[in-house]
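INTERNAL AUDIT FORM
Audit reference: QA-55
Scope: verify that the stored structure record matches its stored sequence.
Auditor: D.O.
Record contents follow.
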Amino acid sequence: GQDPNAFALYYSPLQACNFLLSAKNNKTDRYAAKRLLEMPDVKGEIKNSLQQIAAGKKLTTFQRFYLENRRRMLVNEDNFFSSFQLRDRVNKIHDRAKVLPSAYSVAALNKVAEEQAAAHTNSNNLGIDNTFFRTRLPKKVLKNLKGSQRHFNYVKSVEYADFQLMLEQFAKQHTNVLFIIPPINGKWMKYTGLSAKMYQESVAKMEQQLTSQGFENIADLSRRGNEKYFMQDTIHLGWKGWVAVDQAVRPFMKLPNERYNYDMSNYYYSKKWQNKDNVKRVNLTSKDRLKVK
């Protein structure tokens, strides 16, 4: 599961207040409250209020009063700091775009990708960006990571239930979503001992969770980690990987902007699903149209 300490980087007390003040006594909100209670940065009256929701109880009068006032204060803070102008990256984007072909062409884009990747991955034999390799994988670190992921298991995890929380929000908003499943750098997997079979089992589990509830726009790139220049580092898409993503995004963006309905299931919050393995792979090329309202 997610490292609780990493949660602190993204935790927003304002969003916590918003969640608590709108929470209902249903499986989704009770599960969300229980998960938030496992995080160390959740404290004080927010923690007490989460315990109420997790137990299927209503907020007390005092808790609602506290949260409304706390939210008002946090909104004022947010408005104040949001007034500061942030520097954009428009000029940088325009500068980088100069190397792109004048007319859209997958072959031309791949040519540019190959040229740039070759110049940026020439310091190592793992197909990793030079800067990343130099700063994140010095010799001592690299040596210690050899074979270090032999026992990693992504198939059994509480994060499948966390994933369901996000899907519930998409369903609530009737949003059509494109899910892109990236690969892992094939050379890195071999070096660290990470099991390709295990990773594909985790992909099968994600795809089952998606398609069984009606989320059928999936670009599965998970088997392409051995393609040269597809990855930029160990787990992030690289030069040719983004060309592949573009090929998936372009047709998706042409779909009608309509309200999509989904068949959500509380089963995906269960321990049984979190620990389930040997999930049958879904045939993504054979699917029915999403139901449109």
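Auditor finding: record pair retrieved intact. The chain has 14 helices and two strands.
Action required: none
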